[in-house]
Records
---
Amino acid sequence: MPVDPMLQPLVAGFAVEAQEVIQKVTMDLLELEREGLENDALAKIYTRLGRHLHTLKGSASSLGLQDLGDIAHKLEDALAPLKAHTQKMPRPVVDVLLHGLDLFMLRAQAHADGRGDDLPNPAAALSQLVAAAPPPEHAAVLPGGAFAQVPPAAQPAAVSAPPEMPAAPEPVGESADAGWRVSAAQVTSLMREVERLREVRLRVEERSRELERVSALLAKQGLLAETAEARTLLSGTGRSLRTDGEETSDVVDALEDGLKAITTRPTRTILDPLQRMVRDLSRQLGKEARLSVVGAEVSLDRRLLEKLQGALVHILRNAVDHGLEMPAEREKAGKHHEGALTLRVEQQGNLLYLEASDDGRGIDLSQVRKAAEKRGLITAEEAARLNDNQVRDLIFSEGFSTRSDVTDTSGRGVGLDAVRATVESLQGRIEVSSTRGQGTRFVLTLPVDLGSSPVLMVRALEQFVGLPMLAVESTQLARPDMLRVGKRRTHMEHQGQLLPVIDLGARLGLRASSPPTEGQPLLIVQSGGKRVALGVDAVVGDRDLVIRPLPSEVREVAAWQGAATLSRGELLLILRPDWVVSDTEKVTVSAVSRRALVVDDSLTARALHRAMLEAGGFQVHLAASGARALERLQADTYDVVICDLDMEEMDGIELIARLRENKDTRTLPVILVSAHDTQVARDRGLASGADGFLSKRECAAGRLLAEVLDVMSRRGSRE
Amino acid sequence: MKPLVVDESLESETRDLLARRAARLREQGESTVEEAVHWIAEFPLGEERYALPLESLRAALPLRMVTPVPLSAPAVIGVLRFQGQVLSALSLASLLGGHGWRQDPAVLLVVDRGDGELCALDCEAIPRPTTLPLASVEAARARAEGPVVEVFTHDRQLIHLIDPKRLFGRSDVGARHAR
């Protein structure tokens, strides 16, 4: 069935598109096979499925690929009666449809490769398709897609059994002559240049602001007529600079997106095909299994994904073959007849955590010992000396297998050693933990340079932070009826559970803890099986961000996993979900210490005062302006305020005046600090009602603390 | 024009004087050429003069776009981007144990920590490149064990010379709270 040579280039594109559509159809079929779906949901999937099959048929026919059009038509026929009476799809029908999709894809690929002429008449395959369900083991999963590539001149139906450790595939739709080969170093260097361009863009913005300041200064001189021409010119240049800056910003974003698309792809592209593999293998072995994937939206370096795919295939095959029990055995043990497999992907800074777990029988250590001895990997004496962890590690040894016979899936002793070799070749590590009767868990930890993660951006006071979306279950607005406010802690009722409520601002040491106010956003955050309700001041939105590792000076701070650059160039710190949900009792301890509020518009001055006061045992909160300080003082109580004399908008003198007007803060000790070390400044400060005055030059270690204690003691003795 | 008449004795005296001056200048020139110097970036910190070895200085930036890092060590002002990297901005006054300052720092000095990593230190003014006698620097370093050594300039000004490797080799820069 020759393809019109004019259409041949289009057929290659069609094959790529068909693979994407078939992947979606496969996922829908697996969903339809599930128990417990509502009729509405079933109907939606049937509709979508019908639409996809119709697309396949139409696209194939438009290219003159009649055999493919016929297969798609038969699949539509098989679907029609079920679609009319919405119901769960019987497993044999799923088998037929999946097999039909295999046939479709194998032939589509053959056409794309110019081997369409060698394909056998599809009539036999079509009649087989409608006659009976083929054995599921004929459907093979290979990396890079759900289907095996047809060997030249091979019968489409005669697909071989999957290899134990499949080779890395060519990425989907990326044949060798379809693009350029670029070294990783060149791409990394390009990324650095994009970062530099972003910094240039920020400088352009700064120059534009400087021009505006110059223009304003000229206007203040009062020489309006004389400087009119210069001011017009400056304003025009400023406007042009601003426009140029905005355009540069767009270019930087586009470049970054382009580089991201070139270097990364969503983990979903390798995880989705595994669903089909798990389904087919468990059918082949007479078992029932369901794979859940968490974190499939994380985008990772393509090179890493391609290498990892084979390892994941092997771990999952192992889990189905060795880990999961037969349905009857599971029910006898009080488990659901369907085994649960979970793949969890999480990126924290420059580390990727990939967790594969099952709820099967767990690793039988005595069997591992015996198998290792039998295969000559260890002697009986060595086996006796090994502890449980060391025995468990034997499963990664070369030539290890607990099978005495060789089957399609296992027994050749080639397996987890190859997985470990792959992981180690990526400078990563693999660990296994297992509980007899409860299951096994493999954790792969790998360094990653590239890749992005979905992040929810939130705000606590003036601090913006990111939280990996993976850890955020939902967002709610606080209502009094859902909160249980206790003496030490607030809880929130959520889905029949009482979750501790944590105030992000307090957890970060930015303010004292207090119960959430009505309407305050509460995020349900989970990590490692723990859940909390995290109170934030605002939810800004979600972003797909590249998380970079933090520098060594802050790497050990448990709260942060990394930082990401936002579009305007500023850094966003990313929280560690495990820290967020960890024990928060310690936060309440600090509530008993003395509290100081530092008010200064200089970031460095705030940091210095904080350091000095914390060294003296104070709990320190910071405010960058007088207005912010008043807000803080309305919400919290403090023992002393250290305030800069010279601040824009509201200076220290005005702040003191406002404090003295308020009965709650009338007697609050305030120390003014100033970079102006003059008698005039000192007199002015003390006359305003300050309890003390220090020049910043005098604020050396000890001196500030002594002044603070002195002022507090004087205030105390007066009251 | 009438020629300048020089008295014989005066002429001889002048010649001697000039010869002595020339000899002195020659001596000075030779010693200047031979004296090895240590280039530094000198800046004020409060009332005192501090300096960093010039070779450790990578850039001087305006202090802005720094993101504070809650729960970090007291000396950490925040983090910032520099040429595609994330760097820590640290308070030099705090690193030196709590030093007073004259004006709020407005400059960040990007320095090589001595271990190949970069970080930024705050500073009151853009530093001035100058030199110190290398022998004095080496002698001071041999005497001191801390991250700051006191060295006198040629004109007897006291400079507190910071050794980045010693300064960042200490373990007190990290997490503020173990929570």
Note: The domain at 37-169 of chain B is CATH 2.40.50.180 (OB fold (Dihydrolipoamide Acetyltransferase, E2P)).
---
Amino acid sequence: MSMTLSYDRLSEEEKHRRFLDRIEKGEKIEADDWMPDDYRQTLIKLISMHGISEIMGALPEKEWVPKAPSLRRKLGIMAKVQDEMGHGQLLLRVAEDLMKPYGKTREEIMQDLFRGDLKFHNVFHMPAPTWGDAGLIGWLVDGAAIITQTNMLKASYGPYARALKRICAEEVFHAQHGEAIILALAEGTDAQRAMIQDAIDRWWESLLMFFGPATSTTTGTSKQDITIKYKIRTKTNEQLRQDFLDKYIPRVLSLGLTIPDETLRYDKTEEKWVYKQPDWSEFKNIVRNNGPKSKDRLNLRINAYENNAWVREALSPDEAVV
Amino acid sequence: MTNEGRNFYQEFEVFSSKTDGGQVQHQFSLLAPNEEIALVMAQENFMRREPAADIWVVKRSHVRKMTQEEKESLQRLDNKEYRTTKGYGYLRKKWREYEQNILDEKEIMSWGEDKQK
């Protein structure tokens, strides 16, 4: 051990330089490794938000478990809801290990969520009134999530990259589950086709918002610069949104469905989609828990937490000692 | 509810093997109040699809991991040829002079097999 330099003896600048060196070489940073504070804080914010969004995202879909139109669909959507909760568990573990030096635990994550300090994804503040919405969530909301998550598969933070690898493998099932529902409706009656068109019209703005504003000037904050600098991801919000439009617009149109934006077009010279900007002030409003379903969903989570308090008490290791 | 959440959860590391006697691989970590629930959670969280023949859960506090500094000490120096067959490669040529083959790894590891006629 005498051959290596003691990390503790290095100056902060030297530690920082070595850290950047490791990232540059493609090495993975692990939970107990030295890392700069802004790296840790960016990861905590990103991953706790991602983890809690998986859990909050299961809520609009869970509504459709008892109402799914067939046993097969019921089993499919149940499996998906279970996956989302599992993804939440994985991601919260990654966030919790990062929070450890600050003395924070899952308890604080939950309390932050209940207080409104920890945000969840804009799409999960929206209603899912029809079976068309259930299909659309699997198809396009998960599609959007796959675009952002696959962009971080090689993230410099090892535990997050490994969690994402597991998650993305299951997202393939989610995407096909959504497509199966949508294709069945698209090949069905006029009423069924109208149901998916309604769902697209309802979700379009939320889907554009999903990737976040192009620059921080739109909403005041954006983590994209620091996440790119630290090689947590490689593409900007706008690049991810363009990727999504590239992949999904042709599929939506191929089913004879329309996009609720008359200005939408592909600019061949600029090689990008030109589209009507969503209302970014509304986006800010929604993620501050003022969306149409924000309060209901938060209450569902709070009730589940409080109703299960007795289970935690009964199983508490403190109780066992007494 | 003040202390409840903090003391309820303990950290467990989860390991599993895909087949009987197969290599045990680290999967991920989870929070659970005790070993029994950790096992249930491990199955729920990590084995929903992939095959599993066995699952182990280990309290994280029982795992002594290496520090970043210790991990760096694992890097091998590239001057250990005397420990490996690489440092004795010239023997092949030598034995050839005596019209003999080298007893390399492939040859030696094959000696335990039953000869088939």
Note: Residues 35-46 of chain B form the longest helix (12 residues).
